[in-house]
# Entry
Amino acid sequence: MRGRGRFITVEGLEGAGKSTCLAGIEQYLRGRGLDPVMTREPGGTPLGEAIRQLLLGFDHADMNADAETLLVFAARAEHLAKVIRPALEAGRPVVCDRFTDATYAYQGGGRGLGEARIEALESWVQQGLVPDLTVLLDVPIELGLARAGRRSAPDRFEQERLEFFERARAMYRARAQRMPERIVMIDASAPAEEVLAAITSALGRLLDGAG
# Structure
């Protein structure tokens, strides 16, 4: 749709290097004369950030997987209404640290919920809105967790068992294989400059209408 901003998401497991890549994306877009909205999930709004604390903290460590998924989509509904859709309609690019692919990976794969119920919630909450480009930073699980461990104390997800992350990574990779026109999977264990070069190449194709 002419005039609509581009919706770009960055996905990956813990320690994939999303923060570095998000900074590189913002710099690239500003270099192209754009004014991106940089946001994250869960979060992005006061309600979303409150839900984020519920999801990542340990006050409700035994949270039911269905309740967890519904909280994720509650935060997403608010995020879409208050931040993402208004910015896109105003013609601004939106760059989001994780979006619905993360729900498929963490709740659908990691928690074992599968895809059907997530698809139903996605349809209801997003009403057809999907990212124009998703950068999936793929990293071996042990390497990613080691990186994350050096960064901060583990949150409720980061302290999950290795099998959880194996299922989440498998779901991420399966989605990338099914949707290569939208999801660009990048080896995040490569040197940072190579990762950023691959990302800016994908961004250039998107903005120039070549992909």
In short: Strands lie at 7-12, 37-40, 94-97, 133-138, 183-187. The radius of gyration is 16 Å. The chain has a mean pLDDT of 92.
